[in-house]
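In line with agreed milestones, the collection of sequences with tokenised folds has grown. One record among many is set out beneath this paragraph:
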Amino acid sequence: MRIGFIGLGTMGAPMARRLLEAGHDLTVHNRTREREAPLTALGARGAATPRECARDRELVITMVSDTPDVQAVVLGEEGAALGMDAGSVLVDMSTISPATTRLIATALGEHGVAMLDAPVSGGSEGAERGTLSIMVGGDPEVLERVRPVLEVLGSTITRVGPSGAGQVTKAINQVIIAGTYAAVAEGLTLGLAAGIDIEAAHAAVSGGAAGSWCLTHRGPNMIVDHYPLGFRTRLHRKDLGIALDAARELGVSVPVAAYVEQLETSLIGRGLGDEDVSNIARIVREQAGLESEG
């Protein structure tokens, strides 16, 4: 398929590479143009603007940081919408506001372009391995058209409702993750403070009802107080902001998510926003009187 891919960050770059390796005809664009080079070296074409990236493409995928970024790369002066033909599809895999998603979908629809919101979960590991969980909002027939492409990127592809529903589902995901990270940090800090064999304790609880992806894959980071990048704290904080806005609009109380948002805001203020989000354990450790590298 002829695909345009916009946004080559921690998640987008490996996703685009997987599409290229799967044999798709790929054009790429990134605001920092140097990030296109590893992909153009493998055979992709670079594009100077989102509009150019979208020209003559059957499918355009966006994977950028925030709601204003998606609006700019899709509907801006040199946005992808200006290069897309009627009958083509835009799949936004960013995490943005559900309301803005619906507005963009409506604007594209007026020009005969279909849109799916398809945010993902699984971190940079999932992007590298093609094992992302993809939450899709939009027309089921459009999803079936692009499903073979999404299957290169994710092992779980679930339509959750109409336009915007994918973003609501991602908000649910981020609220749950927030609470899980906080609980894992508190539990492991309890063990560290007690002076027990924390690696053995980690293995023991991982095999029981407390087991989770977070405990298995990020618990070791928390134990050694080292947080190599999987998903940036500042981006999770942005996602929680979207979730908290949605919760306020719906009158839903999410106090755990609000608490974690405060922890992440503090970490970002300390210059730690580009570490992995498991670094909320830094604060839990400090509150327990354990030394932290940060």
Observations:
- The chain has a mean pLDDT of 96.
- The chain has two domains: 2-161, 168-287.
- The domain at 2-161 is CATH 3.40.50.720 (Rossmann fold).
- The CA atoms of residues 234 and 273 lie 5 Å apart.
